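Much of what follows relies on a compact textual record of a protein's fold. The record below shows the convention in full:
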Amino acid sequence: MNIFLIIAGVLSALAAMIHLGCIYFGAPWYRFFGAGEHMARLAEQGNMQPTIITAAIVLVLSTWSLYAFSAAGLIVRLPLLRVALILITAIYLIRAIAGFFLINDPMGRSPDFWLWSSVICLSVGLFHLFGLKQQWASL
């Protein structure tokens, strides 16, 4: 078992659950987690756009969690495991780096959102990277 990939999988699953909370609890959660006032207002108005966008994010994060767990040996081997982990790791790390550049131009979100979400993405990306490095030969 690979502790780095297990942690990465748990963190992705936790992020998915937080996004589910945004769907369930609505505007206050969208605001608290920094989705932006526009998303919060749409949620308050009963618009389905925030739910659809957030549900897609839940699906992606859940899938990424399963791939980390698969590579760690906790669940069955999923298809294209090596390629998927490379892409997941790259997306987390690129998102982290890009977010740091958006702190000064937050595009409807707060600078704190970009800072904290980038630190989180960087952490999860590094767990994936270290886990991927450890498992490389067996993938």
About this structure: The chain has a mean pLDDT of 96. DSSP finds six helices and no strands in the chain.
